User: What shape does this take?
Amino acid sequence: MSTFKFLALGAVMASAATFAHAEGKLSVGAGAGWVVNPYKQYDRDVYPLPVINYEGDNFWVRGLGAGYYLWNDNADKLSIMAYYSPLHFKPGDSDSRALRRLDERRSTLMAGLSYVHNTQYGYLRTSLAADTLDNSNGIVWDLAWLYRYTNGGLTLTPGIGVEWSSENQNDYYYGVSGKESRRSGLDRYDADDGWAPYAELTATYRLSDSWSVYGSGRYTHLSDEAKDSPMVDRSWSALLSTGVTYTF
Assistant: This one.
């Protein structure tokens, strides 16, 4: 399944985890995610999504990521962090005869730095992370601006951003080697680095002091390097998730 950041949400995060939690409190929950992949004739993935969120003075956990604060005050938060990136390609999940003859692309553990700057007009979120498992040996930089609006029990957090992926990152997930080309009949393709803009929205509704429901979505316009790949047949990808959480 090829998911485009739980990402940022990338997160640096799972997109289900972009909403705020009171400091020192633990929230757990469960939900489901739907992914529209850009690969040719590729299955739409539906999968269970565990949610774990904790915000403390020294460390945090949000969905698929966790970090340790190097700096933490009301305005600025700088962290060393790591997150699981589920982005991958499984040949057997495609109905394309050519794509079924390609090599598998594996998910990985990304690690690096994340930074958040809060203002009265919204907040800046950015992260720089690298593959730690020698799968892509790639680097991903994510930059976004978000605004959180609260009215009673409802919180809406829209945001726009852009993600830069290095040459190694794009080539691993979208490139076609000479050996794969001969085996599949696809043109050989070497991808370069590229920029992918996106828009996201997270909504949460507090049912009680402990229970909340959430919904989250992200639409990503693929970079030219991804769109031009013979593995791809659309210019975008999308991620939706929904679920329920309990705060202790």
